[in-house]
Design brief:
The protein is an alpha/beta fold. It has helices spanning 2-7, 20-25, 46-52, 58-62, 65-79, 92-96, 117-121, 129-132, 134-146, 160-169, 177-185, 187-211, 228-249, 266-272, 286-292, 305-310, 312-326, 345-356, and strands at 83-85, 101-104, 108-111, 152-158, 215-220, 255-259, 277-279, 299-303, 331-335. The protein contains 18 helices and nine strands. The chain binds coproporphyrinogen I. Coproporphyrinogen I is lined by residues 38-43, 52, 58, 85, 87, 89-91, 103, 108-109, 156, 172, 219, 221, 338.
Length: 358
Amino acid sequence: MASADQTIRTPSEMAPGDKKFLHALKGGLQKTPPIWLMRQAGRYLPEYREVRATCDGFLDLCFTPEKACEVTLQPIRRYGFDAAILFSDILVIPWALDQGVRFVEGEGPKLDALTSEQDLAALSDPTKAGEKLAAVCETVSKLSASLPKETALIGFAGAPWTVATYMIEGGSSRDFTKVKHWAFAQPESFGRLIDMIVEATVSYLSAQIEAGAEAIQLFDSWAGALDAASFDRWVSAPNRAVAERLRAHHPTIPIIGFPRAAGMNLYSYIETAGVDAVSLDQMAPLELIRHTVQPKLPVQGNLDPLALLTGGAALDGAIDKIMENLSGGPFVFNLGHGVIKETPPEHVTRLVERVRGF
Ligand code: 1CP
């Protein structure tokens, strides 16, 4: 069984200057795993809300390098996480394609939904996305110059399927009716949209890497909305296209995939999506993951954000269960999804202390 293989591994030496987070993504073992959290910068932190209040909308924050750099650094100063994630959003890609995007207070993102082939044809040249998002890449350069030397810098983008859901639904969705209908009824034209998003994402992520990003995460937050065949076509294949094209130019930059709520499709994903590590949601069963996924790829995750919000014994128990199952193999501690905005910041302190003291 795979666990037998894990028990004979010993913590491998980290070369001087290695960062814990990058070491884990290369398959290295450590006494305690590196830790960072999805949405570690954000509204649960009073210092974030203070900066946010000085901005003329959420996109203004994403496109002002000094402010975006500051909010990226805030959780690093407070908690000393092993990795910082660039502060931006997955919806800057539709913005760079000249689709109307705005963030409405209390309602979330609103986009001028694509409804026809003509709307697709009106989108702008995807190969220019990196240039159009130069302000975000400037944030990356600033971060690269100001992070502590032991802290890794993660760049990111939404994976094509998840970005397409927002572009066609016009915002967040519960049932993905419009995007699935388009993908099922007109797969060729939907495929053209996916290809454009792949192109824009490669351009944007290449620019982030050139500015100093040391690892990439692809967020496929709505991967769980698709049947198995559609999952292979619209989740795994486009993730692979992005990963292969990035790797051709930047072979040493690890790529983490996050196919949220993939369920059993996780198994085909790890074989075919071309990623170097996989981030797991809180639904993923730990023992099964330890025996069947972790022997193939480093894993990241998967504390329920609600356990972090709850705190106390519920939090401690959930942390310990994850550590007992996954800390024997290549592993990065994280949540199963982003930090919830009502989370007390001191629960995060407790989490970091417990993981590091395990
Ligand atoms: O005004 C605000 O402060 C808005 C809240 C907020 C924040 C803090 C949004 C709006 N985006 C972000 C930042 C963000 N988004 C980051 C960087 C910060 C960090 O992780 O520390 C990242 C990586 C994202 C990625 C993102 N945006 C995803 C993928 C991850 C996930 O949470 O599933 C998705 C789906 C989005 C879309 C988005 N951005 C914001 C909202 C409200 C939404 C919609 C979410 C939904 O449809 O449920």
